[in-house]
2-C-methyl-D-erythritol 2,4-cyclodiphosphate synthase (Brevifollis gellanilyticus), 157 residues
Amino acid sequence: MTRVGIGYDVHPFQEGRPLILGGVEIPHTHGLQGHSDADVLCHAIADAVLGALGLPDIGYYFPPSDASIEGICSLRILERCAALAAEKGYTIENVDSSLVAEAPRVMKHAPLMKEKISAALGIQPDQVGVKATTNERMGFVGREEGIAAMAVACLVK
Ligand SMILES: Nc1ccn([C@@H]2O[C@H](COP(=O)(O)O)[C@@H](O)[C@H]2O)c(=O)n1
Ligand SMILES: C[C@@]1(CO)OP(=O)(O)OP(=O)(O)OC[C@H]1O
């Protein structure tokens, strides 16, 4: 059986925090705000995997009200999602994703992001897609107020 899932996330910029995308710290003037490390890309991928499994979303497994996960590395969240997939007898065929960010430019970091994401999911880097686009200066992304990410996942049993 083949199943697909979709995920979307957005986080506002915040000064004084590191910018973490796909498990990689990216040099920038601002990081992203969140209870976790605010890795918007990993969060979108996590929801895509959970959606493919027909499970509740990331906030069910990692509630923002849980003080023990403050600052959690979102690669750990992906590891949990991969474990949930394995428990249900699924393997992850591939994930694909797009970051929507006016700044910074991120594609030069994509190979390392693919390594980190794939390792957390227990798959190979070529099973992970990471792409990026600006929002052509329109809307909250265009005003550099935050970063959005979307992802799909394909799982097979
Ligand atoms: N944050 C971003 C946004 C885009 N890129 C790369 O630039 C290319 C052109 O972007 P447009 O929005 O003008 O289409 C895009 O295909 C990416 O390769 C990036 O690295 N980081
Ligand atoms: C993992 C969590 C935990 O608080 O991370 P946040 O940084 O709050 O990010 P968000 O994408 O708003 O919601 C997911 C949360 O469950």
